[in-house]
């Protein structure tokens, strides 16, 4: 079961609360939808091109058995490793 979520930008790690509301919210500017934000309560997890991709990400999150789930959509130029001991204080 997922215990921690790494944001799409890879700058924040959140403790996953399966009882928290996962929200899919449109980003609107001048009546144009620019993307879809995925939120865990008030915590920003990432932005997707459309609602289908955001819903798929939520489905992926609940179907994973790993302890750490990185939100997809980020291309990292180097390998990033998170130590589980460091995450206990998140």
Notes on the protein architecture:
The chain has helices at 51-63, 84-87, and strands spanning 4-6, 13-15, 22-29, 32-40, 43-48, 68-70. The protein is α+β, with helices and mostly antiparallel strands. Strands 2-1-6 form a 3-stranded mixed sheet, with no helix packed on it. A 3-stranded antiparallel sheet has the order 3-4-5. Strand 4 and strand 5 form a beta hairpin. The longest helix is centred in the middle third of the chain and has 13 residues, at 51-63. The two termini are 17 Å apart.
Q: Could you provide a short overview of the structure?
A:
19% of the residues lie in helices and 36% in strands. The protein is of the alpha+beta class.
What structural keywords apply?
90 residues; alpha+beta; three-stranded antiparallel beta sheet; 2 helices
Topology:
Elements: E1 4-6, E2 13-15, E3 22-29, E4 32-40, E5 43-48, H1 51-63, E6 68-70, H2 84-87
Parallel strand pairs: 1-6
Antiparallel strand pairs: 1-2, 3-4, 4-5
Strand order of the largest sheet: 2-1-6
Radius of gyration from CA coordinates:
13 Å
Contiguous low-pLDDT stretches (5 residues minimum) are: none
Task: Please state the overall shape, judged from the principal axes of the Cα atoms.
Answer: elongated
Mean pLDDT figure: 86
Count of helical regions: 2
Note the gap between the termini. 17 Å
């Amino acid at each position: 079961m997922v215990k921690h979520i790494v944001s799409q930008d890879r700058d924040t790690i959140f403790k996953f609360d399966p009882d928290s509301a996962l929200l899919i919210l449109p980003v609107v500017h001048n009546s144009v939808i620019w993307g879809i934000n995925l939120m865990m309560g008030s915590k920003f997890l990432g932005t997707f091109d459309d609602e289908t991709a955001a819903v798929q990400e939520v489905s992926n999150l609940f179907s994973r058995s790993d302890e750490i789930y990185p939100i997809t959509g980020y291309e990292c130029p180097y390998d990033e490793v998170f130590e589980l001991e460091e995450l206990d204080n998140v």
